[in-house]
Design a protein that fits this description.
The chain has about 260 residues and is mostly beta strands. The chain folds into 3 domains: about 40 residues, no CATH class; about 45 residues, no CATH class; about 160 residues, Sandwich (Jelly Rolls), CATH 2.60.120. Helices cover about 5% and strands about 45% of the residues. It has 1 helix and 13 strands. The longest helix is centred in the N-terminal third of the chain and has 16 residues. The relative contact order is 0.21.
């Protein structure tokens, strides 16, 4: 009789502890947390114990390892790409006055003399680094100085003919910062254009141009290479100085 009673107790214990219920006497899974407002807290993942990955302000992503463990820091964090392999990444590089002003505040000048109707020239190359594969967001803005006489110069002359001029700005992604190759030159980012015309009048001063571009980058050292373009009519003189007075560049890198 004692043997039968002992077997019954052991069998009851096995079924009692194979499923654990919190807030319920009838658990439906190995762990069952019942209640419409129930939550789970893992203190090892809070901002006190994981301040690098959990700043206490933004929600921190929790990953599941191959063993089923919940973690903020899975193995292989900085190698590869995609969910579960990279650290949360979101930082901003802000570069004011990223284009040299030049001797007379004309910046980098793209010259379009009477003999040609369009001109393209590199404005500036800006290096930057990313610790891992990421999405790149670039926002730029710059003043442009327009003249029908040669720039750079101490004073500019405004347009006084009945003719339109167009000005465009954009950038390329120089991956690995080793010079633009044929493939990189096929992808233009942040393109923005403006058109100007006047007749026997005009005002001396700076206009403004800006743009936004997005792209995917691998980990490593890269560069943004900015170009300026101008176009005008036959036998027209157009000189455009990019970034002579005020300009800024903001690079956001995140996954």
């Amino acid at each position: 009789m004692k043997k039968i009673l002992l077997f019954t107790i052991l069998l009851f214990s096995f079924y009692s502890f194979s499923q654990v219920g919190i807030g319920t006497n009838n658990p439906q899974q190995e762990l069952h947390v019942a209640g419409t407002t129930s939550t789970i807290r893992i203190e090892s993942l809070n901002s006190t114990n994981e301040p690098t990955l959990n700043d206490g302000t933004k929600l921190a992503p929790v990953y599941v390892t191959s063993n089923g463990n919940l973690t903020l820091d899975p193995s292989g964090y900085t190698s590869g790409g995609g969910a579960g392999t990279n650290e949360p990444l979101n930082f901003l590089i802000s570069i004011p006055n990223f284009i040299p002003n030049g001797p007379f505040g004309d910046g980098t000048v793209v010259a379009n003399p009477a003999a040609i109707q369009s001109a393209t020239q590199q404005i500036v190359s800006v290096p930057f680094s990313s610790p891992q594969d990421a999405l790149l967001e670039v926002r730029y803005a710059m003043t442009i100085d327009l003249s029908d006489q040669f720039l750079p110069a101490p004073a500019a002359s405004t347009f006084n003919d009945v003719s339109a001029r167009t000005v465009r700005c954009y950038f390329y992604l120089d991956l690995n910062n080793d010079g633009l190759d044929a493939m990189e030159l096929t992808k233009v980012y942040g393109l923005h254009g403006e058109a100007y015309t006047s007749f026997s009048q005009g005002s001396v001063g700076y206009a403004f141009i800006h743009g936004v571009g997005y792209g995917n980058i691998p980990a490593g050292n890269h560069a943004l290479v900015f170009f300026g373009e101008t176009a005008d009519g036959i036998n027209r003189e157009t000189y455009v100085g990019f970034g002579g007075s005020s300009d800024y560049l903001k690079i956001r890198i995140y996954n």
